[in-house]
Automatic annotation (TrEMBL):
Protein's organism: Pomatorhinus ruficollis (streak-breasted scimitar babbler)
Record keywords: Kinase, Metal-binding, Transferase, Zinc
The protein's name: MOB3C kinase
SMART domains recorded: Mob1_phocein
GO molecular-function terms, A-Z: kinase activity
InterPro entries associated with the record: MOB_kinase_act_fam, MOB_kinase_act_sf
Taxonomic lineage of the native organism: Eukaryota, Metazoa, Chordata, Craniata, Vertebrata
Family matches, as Pfam families: Mob1_phocein (PF03637)
Binding positions (Zn(2+)): 78, 83
SUPFAM superfamilies: Mob1/phocein
Length: 143
């Protein structure tokens, strides 16, 4: 378990919502609704009077946090040696491409790929132009 919280690993601490903010209140509603039962249609419905963009943003961040935790728990078993290719079974191989270092789709090991992916997602989530955290601003810009 110590490996999961090692700062040199790709596991990142959870992105948190500031208590007292609208996003924090939406997060609490989302958590409560997810524990309320099995009616998924009702669980994901937008609470009355809330912004759809804020509601979606809260769930995106929560999903990122959960995936990050899952990846952190299994990252010690998927190493450069044991997972030399990022793949989805025998049929699919995932390659990394970005606008800076990797101009063309590039083979990476699964740990390298996941590190790049988690960094990219975290950068987007922390970008105020994409995920504004100030109340009501998500309605003013595309989220």
């Amino acid at each position: 378990l110590k490996q999961v919280f090692n700062k040199d690993k790709t596991f990142r601490p959870r992105k948190k919502f500031e208590p007292g903010t609208q996003r924090f209140e939406l997060y609490k509603k989302a958590q409560a609704s997810l524990k309320s039962g099995l009616d998924l249609k009702a669980v994901v419905q937008l609470p009355p009077g809330e912004s759809i963009n804020d509601w979606i943003a809260v769930h995106v961040v929560d999903f990122f946090n959960r995936i990050n935790l899952i990846y952190g728990t299994m990252s010690e078993f998927c190493t450069e040696r044991s997972c030399p290719i990022m793949s989805g079974g025998l049929k699919y191989e995932y390659r990394w491409q970005d606008d800076s270092k990797y101009k063309k789709p590039t083979k990476l090991s699964a740990p390298q790929y996941m590190c790049m992916l988690m960094d990219w997602i975290e950068m987007l989530i922390n970008n105020e132009d994409v995920f504004p955290t100030r109340i009501g601003e998500c309605d003013l810009v595309p989220c």
